[in-house]
Each structure stands twice: as C-alpha cells, then as structure tokens.
Specification:
The protein is α+β, with helices and mostly antiparallel strands. It has two helices and six strands; from the N terminus they run E-E-H-E-E-H-E-E. The chain has a four-stranded mixed β-sheet, with helices on one face. A two-stranded antiparallel sheet has the order 1-2. The protein is globular. The relative contact order is 0.28.
Length: 111
C-alpha cells in the first residue's frame, strides 16, 4: 500500500498519547467496527478497534480510513500501511516468515 498512517493524539485507558506510542513500532491491525475476515491469520499481532481500544477525538483517523476506502489496515513497524481492506472483504495474510512478539497481553496497548 505504502501509505503513511496519520499521527493523531489518542486516548487509551484514560491517557492521551500519540498513536505512534500505542503502535509501539510493531505490526498492528487497526479497524473500525467489526474485525474483518482474515484477522485470525494475524494471531500474535495487536488488533485494535478504533472507538473501543483507542479513541481519536478529532475523528482524523476514521476520516483518513474512509478517504482510503478502508475500514481496516495493517500497520508495519515503520508506520506505513502493509494492507488495507473495507468491511465485507478479506484482510490479506501476513508476509511469509513474519514473527511477532506481543509486548502486552491487552492487545499491545502500553499501560
């Protein structure tokens, strides 16, 4: 895909942080609404729902996703988008050989 994800301030567990801090330089699936089909193939990767796990008060992230015709994206550790899909479509599988380490049992969200 090659898109760089925007960096709004978000609220997680009552704390305002940068989205970069939440993503923590690891592969992450971000989605609006129900997780897309194919999410199970991303086991071990944080899967965060916008509006449930992270809150963006400006709506910038949701608007950005809508502008890309996507309801879910896979963010690489460098902040660029690996894959995107819209609701009702299958999320592409991870790249061959991807090894993940979840740093926090709560969907990777720093505490």
């Amino acid at each position: 895909m090659g898109w760089l994800i925007p960096q709004p301030r978000v609220t997680v567990d009552g704390r305002q942080v940068r989205l970069d801090d939440v993503l923590a330089r690891q592969w992450t699936v971000l989605h609006i609404g129900a997780a897309p089909a194919g999410t199970a193939s991303w086991a071990g990767v944080p899967i965060l729902e916008i509006g449930r796990d992270i809150h963006v008060h400006t709506g910038a992230l949701s608007a950005w996703l809508r502008g890309k015709n996507a309801s879910a994206v896979v963010v690489r550790p460098d902040g660029f988008i690996y894959a995107a899909t819209d609701s009702g479509h299958y999320l592409p599988e991870p790249p061959a050989g991807l090894v993940t380490v979840v740093t926090n049992p709560r969907n990777g969200v720093p505490v």
